[in-house]
Design a protein that fits this description.
There is one protein chain. Helix content is about 45%, strand content about 10%. The chain has 13 helices and 11 strands. By secondary structure, it is an alpha/beta fold. Helix 11 (about 390-395) links the parallel strand 10 and strand 11 (about 415). It has 3 domains: about 25-140, no CATH class; about 145-250, Rossmann fold (3-Layer(aba) Sandwich), CATH 3.40.50.720; about 275-465, no CATH class. The strands form 4 sheets. Strands 3-2-1-4-5 form a 5-stranded parallel β-sheet, covered by helices on one side. A two-stranded antiparallel sheet has the order 6-7.
């Protein structure tokens, strides 16, 4: 399966903060929103002589769309540039399309719009590179370097130590580990950091060496030891953080929240909750509406071609699983002589005799999928998301692949992360289907607007290139 798998191009960054009041964290979260608003104000001053109501409204919209900005300070310069431009192309394109559709764009001079479009990403890049220069000063403002220990030599503890060592923007000095097991029982040899003692030694060590931060990297089964240790550490002034071993699992949108005063950990969640859901739906409506208007002559020509090519309906409707595994009907231009939608559905294969000559062209170019933009407007699908499989295939693969149904925590898409990474069309082996599911789950785990934009742009390139795999 690994040969079909690749690391996700876009990884969500959850910041570098040890706490939410970290000065550098707050600065990064506000950086993009303040820059885009500043750019609007600059353009308003240059072309209008002051801030008029349309510019103030645009400022509020932009701040809402970009706050909080993702952490870019640890990225390479080329990653910063690509991340900034892809993100800006999507946001600005969405706003311009919305402005054209509503007529709101007429409130701004054309010269002002053009200046704003090129000025904003340039200012954003200048701001992030300037932040890299002043970051050491911000870190010093937070106080002296924090003396840190990790309790528990295990996978998550070692991963945490590696992050602390690699990140130059965390003011922490790792002194070492505490572990009850003997050296013979510790699975890791040649550790970079010393073992400072057992868990019973922690309280005394913390007091003697003025330790500021303690990370408890203990297994959930160690609850009695954790409770006893916490009682002992109440006699110190160290900050204590728990690194639960559940984070070794492949969390989907994993984060910590609370219900009133009770903390809860999200283990498997949809990325499209709250504002993200509204943003995703708004983008789907605007983009699909514009595309349907532009391709309406193509839809008419294809409909005539399907009708003349072979007897049968123009539109083929097939039951698929949608959001939360509920059945929906997905529209496609008919490309076969059959319309299978029963308990057994045979995937199309190379040189499949059921495919019509015109249908082969439609499937190769993905033009048969165009009616699904209507599904998007109906709210049944999204432009980007895991591709929907026939119900019969779902029922088969959910028994064979662990986590298969997780992909249905979001609406199915016309195109997806798996499809632009070579897993389009027939999945004749179980390994290929597993690889497709891996990419679908990667998409859920790392969703962002810029990832959607990247997938849309890459889909266009894949279609024009004529990627193999679609029969």
């Amino acid at each position: 399966m690994n040969r079909f798998r690749s690391a996700p191009r876009f990884r969500k960054s959850f910041g570098i903060a040890i706490a939410r009041d970290n000065i550098l964290y707050i600065t990064e979260a506000l950086l993009d929103p303040l820059v885009v608003v500043f750019a609007v104000w600059m353009v308003a001053s240059m072309y209008e002589g002051g801030l008029k109501p349309p510019y103030l409204i645009l400022s509020v919209i932009l701040f809402s769309l970009t706050f909080p900005s993702s952490s870019k300070i640890t990225l390479t310069p080329s990653e910063v540039v690509s991340n900034t431009f892809v993100n800006w192309v999507f946001i600005s394109g969405l706003l311009v399309a919305f402005g054209l559709a509503t007529g709101y764009l007429s409130y701004f001079p054309a010269a002002a719009i053009l200046a704003w479009l090129w000025m904003t990403p340039v200012l954003m890049l200048m701001a992030i590179f300037a932040l890299r220069i002043v970051a050491p000063v911000l870190i010093k403002l937070q106080g002296p370097t924090k003396r840190t220990i990790i309790v528990g030599i295990n996978e998550q503890g070692l991963a945490l130590a590696e992050r602390l060592a690699e990140n130059n923007y965390i003011a922490a000095e790792l002194l070492g580990f505490f572990e009850d097991r003997s050296e013979e029982r510790i699975p890791v040899k040649d550790m970079k950091y010393p073992t400072l003692g057992t868990i019973d030694d922690i309280s005394a060590y913390v007091k003697e060496h003025r330790v500021n931060i303690i990370y408890l990297s203990l297994h959930m089964a160690s609850q009695p030891r954790i409770v006893r240790l916490l009682d002992e550490l109440k006699d110190t002034t160290a900050s204590i953080y728990f690194v639960p071993d559940i984070f070794l699992s492949d969390l989907i949108q994993g984060r910590i929240g609370q219900i009133d005063d009770i903390p809860v950990v999200a283990v498997c969640e949809t990325p499209f909750v709250g504002f993200n859901g509204v943003l995703k739906r708004l983008a789907d409506i605007v983009i699909s509406s514009l595309i349907l208007i532009m391709i309406s002559p193509i839809l008419l020509a294809i409909a005539i071609g399907v009708k003349l090519g072979s007897p049968g309906p123009i539109i083929f409707k097939q039951r698929r699983y949608g959001l939360y595994g509920e059945e929906i009907y997905v529209y496609k231009f008919r490309s076969m002589t059959v319309c299978e939608d029963g308990d057994k559905v045979t995937q199309a294969t190379k040189e499949d005799q059921r495919i019509t000559p015109f249908g082969a062209f439609l499937r190769k170019t993905s033009l048969d999928e165009l009616p699904q933009f209507i599904n998007v407007l109906q709210g049944r699908m999204s432009i980007v998301g895991p591709r929907p499989h026939a119900v019969a295939h779902n029922e088969m693969y959910r028994k064979l692949i662990t986590g298969y149904m997780v992909r249905h925590k979001v609406k199915p898409g016309i195109t997806g992360w798996a499809q632009v990474n070579g897993l389009r069309g027939e999945t004749e082996t179980l390994n290929k289907m597993k690889a497709r599911i891996d990419y679908d789950i990667d998409y859920l785990r790392n969703w962002s607007l810029k990832l959607d934009m990247y997938i849309i742009l890459k889909t266009v390139l894949v279609v024009f290139k004529g990627q193999d795999g679609a029969y």
